[in-house]
Amino acid sequence: MNHWIKITPLADIPRLGSRVINSAKGEIAVFRTEDDQVFALHNKCPHKGGPLSQGIVYGDKVACPLHNWKISLVSGDAEEPDEGHTACFAVKVEDDMVYLEL
Amino acid sequence: MQKMKLVVIGNGMAGMRTVEELLKIAPDLYDITVFGDEPHPNYNRIMLSPVLAGEQTISDIILNSREWYAENNITLHVGKRINKIDRMRRIAYAEDGSEAEYDRLLLATGSKPFMLPIPGGDLQGVIGFRDIKDVDTMIDTAKQFKHAVVIGGGLLGLEAANGLKIQGMDVTVVHRNEWLLERQLDRTAGKMLQKSLEAKGLTFLLQKDTEQLIGKDGRVAAVRFKDGQQIQADLVVMAVGIRPNYALAESAGIYCNRGIVVNDTMQTYDPRVYAVGECVAHRGISYGLVAPLFEMAKVCATHLANFGIGRYVGSVTSTKLKVTGIDLFSAGDFSGGEDTEEIVLHDAVGGVYKKLIIKDDKIIGSVLYGDTTDGSWYFQLLRDKKPIHEIRDHLMFGQDSLGNTGHQGQDKASAMTDEMEVCGCNGVCKGTIVKAVKEKGLFTIDDVKKQTKAGSSCGSCVGLVEQILASTLGGGYAPPSTSKAVCGCTDMSHETVRQEIRTHKYLNIPDAMRGMGWRTPNGCATCRPALNYYLISTWPHEAVDDPQSRFINERVHANIQKDGTYSVIPRMYGGVTSPDQLRKIADVADKYAVPMVKVTGGQRIDLLGISRENLPKVWADLDMPSGYAYGKSIRTVKTCVGSEFCRFGTQNSTQLGIDIEKAFDHMWAPHKVKFAVSGCPRNCAESGIKDVGIIGVDSGWEIYVGGNGGIKTEVAQFLCKVKTAEEVIEYSGAFIQIYREEARYLDRTVHWIERVGLDSVKQRILEDAEGRKAAFERLLYALQGAVDPWAERAQKRDTHKEFDTITV
């Protein structure tokens, strides 16, 4: 059964930035957009496994730091013409605290 | 809100490109209806020649599939010709009785082949070369008949002739002029071309006027010339020119003058009606090539989208002939006149002919035959009106007389086979690029980079990719302008952005984006790092340095590796170290079980394979300053032993290297900056391939600038000679500061100098002493109070959460 796990105060994730979570399901990157939405992706680019958490975040996308693939934070899909998918996780903010569903 | 109605008449490349551009910027503004009189969706007309030559099929050259129209909610009417426009009621009527109301109308009716008004012109077997129907007719005819005559020795005529020959016909090309392609080639090149085409089996009849076509049973049988000669013909292709197709517009009362007259926003005399493509007359000129159409489409789309920005101001065009195995390029005014100069290289046996026409120190035209490698480079110099005196002596030998690395020294696209690797970084071969260009309908170098990845990593093969693109597209190719937009988030060039930041004193990225009308809420991974650099270099100590807009390496002050670990390279000023430093490095390597310790090319020591979490601890244990080996910043000052030890040394190069590295420490720049100081002309520190290379001689120091040892080896150019070490620091500092303030982000010094010219750099450093001193002062001011980023992070661990991982 999945359940919500308390991660970190929202303030500890920089806007247009991310934090890395070490979990039983591997490394998960939690991103925060400019308008304070949060998204969580497996911290692995579908291309060559680059740590997406370290990429530049813009709009609702992140550019992988290794070869600049653009991955949608919403769907985990690579932007065309690249093809690939990174697993997404449910994440929410309540009372300025970030929760991840695992 | 009710959507406006846009009706597009003409389902060809210009019309659909405009619709594509419009959908990109205003996807929900219009209900779009498209009428085309051909039974096909939009296809790549410039690829008809390869289809005729059997190198492509129709389905390969479709640009927009029927699904594309459906996905974008576009109502498509194929095989329907609009024959009436009622501008009062704003309705377009088709021949079959269907009609469409419009709020805005876009005319993209293209052009039609000019058919000679001679007796017999209406016989069966007499056609133009314009659309899929013509190609089908030619292919069918070739199956039943033998003799083809092509009237017109221009680009289209020759491509038709080549294709018909491949289809198995005996082809004679009839031309009025003394040589072929007289609008593209001079006599010499024209004759060379004729020879190679004759070798392919084509026959030419030059300086011939066609008098009439003679028929038999309703079908053409022969062509007769004014001099009485007559030749057999089962098929006659007229390729003597095209005429803008503006009859519909004219019948609707829209002002036409040998084309639909439009202003710089592509608007006709009826403000609701726009026109693009071959049907228009813009400033009195009609264009028959693809590149200008695309420029028009872009401008037109912004006005249809009600943005009211962008003007089309005309195009300079260039030409390539798409006949496999023949390399030919021409651009601009190639015939010259009294006030022009020519540079000519002619190797008749080798089959190479190059001519550049120069006027007032600028290239105004070029003809290349046999070796078109540098066509796009010359074309760029021509379009940018760049002064050439600095490069005149090696202009003829091309841009790449020094080899690029990564593709076996190949610099001629035509000489490569399909299997040969073009992009050594991403493993892309020539055939893959050609296939992508043809099948996916790519027109720009950016498209090719995106689709194939060729040229998208180190960039060394971009010139080669560009050639392949240009020779595949022929006249459809337009090289990118040198003042291109920063990225898709804006239309502004790097120079404009820098100017705006200075003028409006933007101090942070959100203000800058708002003020400059960025299209995206927070930019992209291309523009944000550039903007961040422009802000902090223009307004040091005032602008906000945004870590989230820096690439990861500059955010964590270490260089990311393929497995997500980092490399740590401490500063060793001038490449000089000590037993104490080495011991500390060895201890750290042991303590963190560093997988590899390596000496770098810049005379430093690299600890590879450090995890992100360990970085601050490693820095604390090392207690050495950051070597900035990860940044767009001052990297290293490489030195030789110099006069302290070396028996040849004339100057203390080691000490000067240390002094320079300390003086410019912590300096961010548009790209990495490397220095070297050698103590004598033997140049053991390799000063000749550094951004700033200094060579000690007995009487002082020589300063060289703009060298580069990377992707493309560039030899540094002599800037000046000075007497003292202090002068070296001032002169080189001023040089670097002007580069920091004026170059585009990701320009190395060589690229910047290439654009502004070494003369202007010399003028500002050598002749303008006050300007030099002021620039040097500005650099010192910018560097004032800089702190070592490693020490800062090691000490204030709590404020740098980016290194921590949360465990659940």
TrEMBL record, chain A:
One GO term (biological process): nitrate assimilation
Record flagged with keyword Nuclease: no
GO molecular function: 2 iron, 2 sulfur cluster binding; metal ion binding; nitrite reductase [NAD(P)H] activity
Membrane-spanning residues: none
Protein name: Nitrite reductase small subunit NirD
SUPFAM superfamilies: ISP domain (SSF50022)
Keywords recorded for this protein, A-Z: 2Fe-2S, Iron, Iron-sulfur, Metal-binding, Nitrate assimilation, Oxidoreductase
Entry keyword annotation includes Nucleotide-binding: no
Lineage: superkingdom: Bacteria
A Pfam family recorded for this sequence: Rieske_2
Name of the encoding gene: nirD
Native organism taxonomy: Bacteria, Pseudomonadati, Pseudomonadota, Betaproteobacteria, Nitrosomonadales
Record domain Rieske: where: 5-100
UniProtKB/TrEMBL annotation, chain B:
Biological pathway: Nitrogen metabolism; nitrate reduction (assimilation)
Positions of the NADH-rubredoxin oxidoreductase C-terminal domain: 318-385
Protein residues bound to [4Fe-4S] cluster: C640, C646, C680, C684
InterPro entries: BFD-like_2Fe2S-bd_dom (IPR007419), BFD-like_2Fe2S-bd_dom_sf (IPR041854), FAD/NAD-bd_sf (IPR036188), FAD/NAD-binding_dom (IPR023753), FAD/NAD-linked_Rdtase_dimer_sf (IPR016156), NasD-like (IPR052034), NiRdtase/SiRdtase_haem-b_fer (IPR005117), Nit/Sulf_reduc_fer-like_dom_sf (IPR036136)
Record keyword 4Fe-4S present: yes
This protein's record includes keyword Transit peptide: no
This protein's UniProt keywords: 2Fe-2S, 4Fe-4S, FAD, Flavoprotein, Heme, Iron, Iron-sulfur, Metal-binding, Nitrate assimilation, Oxidoreductase
GO MF term list: 2 iron, 2 sulfur cluster binding; 4 iron, 4 sulfur cluster binding; flavin adenine dinucleotide binding; heme binding; metal ion binding; NADP binding; nitrite reductase activity
Cofactor(s), names only, from the UniProt record: [4Fe-4S] cluster; [2Fe-2S] cluster; FAD; siroheme
Annotated cofactor note: Binds 1 [4Fe-4S] cluster per subunit.
Residues covered by the BFD-like [2Fe-2S]-binding domain: 422-470, 486-536
Entry binding sites for siroheme: C684
Domain Nitrite/sulphite reductase 4Fe-4S span(s) in chain numbering: 631-769
GO biological process terms held by the UniProt record: nitrate assimilation
Xref: SUPFAM superfamilies: FAD/NAD(P)-binding domain, Nitrite and sulphite reductase 4Fe-4S domain-like, Nitrite/Sulfite reductase N-terminal domain-like
Residues covered by the Nitrite/Sulfite reductase ferredoxin-like domain: 561-623
Family statement: Belongs to the nitrite and sulfite reductase 4Fe-4S domain family.
Protein name: NAD(P)/FAD-dependent oxidoreductase
